Amino acid sequence: MNRLSTSFGRVIVGLAIPLALAFGFTEPDFPARLVERLRTFSVTYPREKVYIHTDRPFYTAGETIWLKGYLFDGPEHLADSVSKVLYVDLVQIESRKVVVHRILRVANGHAVGDIALGDSLADGAYMLRAYTGWMRNFSEDYYFTKPLTLLRADTEPVQATGSQRLAPQPDVQFFPEGGQLVNGLEGRVAFKVVSPAGKGLDAKGFVMSSTGDTVTGFSAKHLGMGYFAFQPEGGRSYTAFVQLADGTTHKYPLPAARSEAYMLLVDNITNRDNVRVYIKNTKPAGVQGRFTVIVQSRGRDIQVVQGEVSKKAIVMQIPRQVLPAGISQITLFDETNQPVCERIIFVEKNDRLTVQLKPSRPTFNPREKIQVTISVADATGKPVRANLSLAATDAGQVLEKEPYATDLVSYLLLNSDLKGTIEQPGYYFDASNRERATDLDVLMMTQGWRRFTWKEVLQDVYPAPKYPIEEGLSVTGQVLRPNKKAPGVVNLTFFVAQPDSTRDVFMGESDESGRFSAHGLQFVDSTKVMIQGVIGKNNRNLEIKLDDWFSPTLQLTQIPYNSIVFQRDELADYLKRTKEYLEIERQIRKNREILLKEVTVRKKREAPADSRKIYGQASNTLKVDQTMIAGGMNVLDLLRGRIAGVSVSGSAMNPTVQIRGSANFSGVVEPLFTLDGTPVSKESIVSIPIFDVDYVDVLKGANAAIFGSRASGGVIAIYTKRGSPNYDFSKDQSPGTLVVTMPGFRAVREFYAPRYDENKPENVRPDYRPTLHWEPMIQTGEDGKAQVSFFASDARSSVRIVAEGVTADGQPGVGRVVFDVK
């Protein structure tokens, strides 16, 4: 057997010459083009990964899901990314509807939030889904998903699988290693046997040829997966007979074999230093040329080699030291530069964090203060700085129904790079499982990897992404004339009224077609936004329409794995305690609604303070109403004859204003004009629509002294309705104006837990909380340590603590501890 060890390291900078791959022409420098296109593709479409840590896997209607999002860049797993907006959906599996949608602000790769579960939500199977706006450009298969179960305290536990409509026959699939079987060559066929709910089933069977011969037998090794060696022969077909544990047998055809083709086999188990790749082919002797093999991980090229088609069996070696931790992809291109075989492998580096959780005592009393020291170190034992989230739950109520469930480590290194849901992913990272490396290799043969296709990568021009990278919230739309024609460039003013009464105002303009967009906005949920458009000086005869605000869609092709099934008595204590707690909460809210006796309070009415003013009392104030508007061309017209000592003369468009005969040797000294507290020119005042004016203050003499020498002629202060901090934009019906209430970032809520070291009235009530503590933002110091404290409940049970976190350079870690409260 010939050994191939040539590695390729040369990179072409710039665009390669276009190639007619569809016609099978051989490209002389195809490896260079392959590397250049892969790198360009990765830069054009950078990938992101999202992980969500929640306090527990199931909840009751009326409770709260506490969560923290971790955002990573795809290739390097750095604990940050360019996106600053994270979307989180709660999806009901049976109806396949998004029942809750949250928008979370991302800072330094972390996002903190919660989902309050309404009392009206139905029980059953749900899914938590998280993604960024940029991730919407790619397949939803790589959104973060996590199964959750919702129960109701007023009903008995149910089977929450959402699988009632699925057929009872198991799903059995066969996967030839590398992607294809070749007549006359011995290869391996992996298989996977799963139930309708997606759980692996124990099975065994045999393969029979079309001539009636039994070729080989097989049996599932782990969670319904296994493999067998097999050499097909030309002119024959093959059928697999699969027997389940219940004795039933089902038959399935094996994939058809090819006669003139390549085979790719990988040995990722037996050699400690290298991964061996075996390449075989049955091409006719007349076929000449070179095949190409590329090894890449998360869009980064690692090794590219070429070999002669005339060599029918070749081995290449990939040093493990050049492979990153996690999944790598090996692709074989034939002599016409078409991808024909592919295999993914997992490389274990053992470079994860060690997260230790040490309670101050081995056991605690009910309601006693619990202190936990967190210590984080890297693979060498060196203390490191890390950001973590921690959940402490009552283990007697919050059952661990799913062994080896997804955590930050397994998701980042495994789940996030595979399509579909993986059953018990934590199994492959538990060093106590001696067969985990072999089982993981079989998983690589069955699960597949498809973040992109090579056809997408090798095209010369990449289409522009539909969705931008979001550094904040966006408002986009279009301005049209009433006849629906493009208005040309429109001047736009945006007023953002936050729920906390703060106001933001910014200006912009549309393009020639009336399209506009504002990006990078920062506002919280249910914020009123007013957009005002003007053409020219004062033409507001316009219609403003916003693009549909992002409405999450759902493409759920199969019921997720890991749906939880509860027995009748398993959650009896949890449901009883939850029902009692929710009833107490309802009673407390009811008791707060106290009816007061009728009281008459007499006090002189004070004018409400206007934050736009820097002065105290005005000399005169003119409140503008509808009866005045009909007779005036502009706001200064309204002052004629209405305020003593104020003279307005001249035309409506060029008036002269004088307060109490203010003049000097040069003539009339006009007053200082202000608009909503800001000094402006008289021309700006004249252009203000009268219907926008709320009131006018006139300051004379000493009252105007606060403005200094520029107010020697007094002050005319104009205040508009829209400028008022108390103005309700929703009542504005002016032409060229749009007022909408928009969803913004979810405000961060603090997890509440009682403090039993303080004497508070609420401490007398029973305490059987399922989640004792949730702390989403824990930062260890240079010594790798941090401390967390909370109080035990009344339950004499076990407390389970799980902490997950990551360093800035993307090293993940998970720590667990269980102790008793007696």
UniProtKB/TrEMBL annotation:
Pfam families: Plug (PF07715)
Residue ranges constituting the TonB-dependent receptor plug domain according to the UniProt record: 627-715
InterPro entries according to UniProt: Plug_dom, Plug_dom_sf, TonB-dep_rcpt-like
Keyword Signal belongs to the record: yes
Keyword Translocase: no
GO cellular component: cell outer membrane
Main location: membrane
Protein's name in the database: TonB-dependent receptor-like protein
